[in-house]
C-alpha cells in the first residue's frame, strides 16, 4: 500500500475515533443526573417504624446504594421498589404506607448515580437492573423474601429484565414501561436536533457499545417473554413522556399479562398513580404467596 494511501487510511481511522470519542463524551454528559435527593440516607427510624431505617447495600464495581428498609410484617413478602431515570427512591416513598396496609414489607433504594447512592461513570437500564439484583441478594442473605418487584419507567424496564433472568422473583409490577430503548432514544435525539436516521442509528449503536448490551436484549417487549412470574403492566392514558402505545406493545408480547390503564394519569404523576394504588396492590397481594 502506498504511503500516501496508508496515511490517508490512518488519518481516516483517527478522525473516526475522535468523532466516536466526542460523541460518547457528549452522550455521557447529556445523560448525567443533574440533581440528587439524598433523603434515603437520612439517619433515624427503625425497620418497623413508618419512616423505616437507612441502610447501605453493596452493588457492582465496589459501589454502594442508599436504601430505606421497611419490615413491619416479619415473614411476609418484600416489595423492592425501583425509581425511574433522574428520580430517586425518595420519590417512591409514597408507596410504603399502602404496601404496609397490603401486608408487604418494602425496600426502596437509589440506583447508582442517583440520590444518595455512590456515583458512577454513567447510569443505564442494565445498571438499574444490577442494583435491583444487589438489593435482592442483600435480602436473601438475611433470609428475607419472597421478593416482588415494582418499577417505574426505566425502573420498570429494569425489573422486567431482572425477572427475565431471576426465576425466584415472585411477581412484577411495571409502571409506565417503554417498549424498546430505540424509539425513546430517537425521540430524545430528535428533540436535540438529530433527526437524520443514519446518525440516530450510529448513536444508538454507540450507546449499545457503551452500556455493553444490545437494545434488543434489554427491551421490555422482549424480556417480558422470558418471565415466568405474574406480571402487571400499569400505564397512564395521559402519559406524554412514554406514550401508552409502549405499554400496549409490551402487553401484546405476552397476551396473558394484564394491562391496567389509568385514565388521565401522566408519566411522573404521583397523585394520579396514588389514586389507583389499592387496585395495583390488590393485584399484587392476590398473586404473591405468603
UniProtKB/TrEMBL annotation:
Which superkingdom heads the taxonomic lineage of this protein's source? Bacteria
What Gene3D superfamilies does this protein map onto?
A: alpha/beta hydrolase
Pfam short name (any one): Hydrolase_4
Start and end residues of each Serine aminopeptidase S33 domain: 77-190
PANTHER family xref list? HYDROLASE ALPHA/BETA FOLD FAMILY, PEROXISOMAL MEMBRANE PROTEIN LPX1
Indicate what this protein is called per its UniProt record: Serine aminopeptidase S33 domain-containing protein
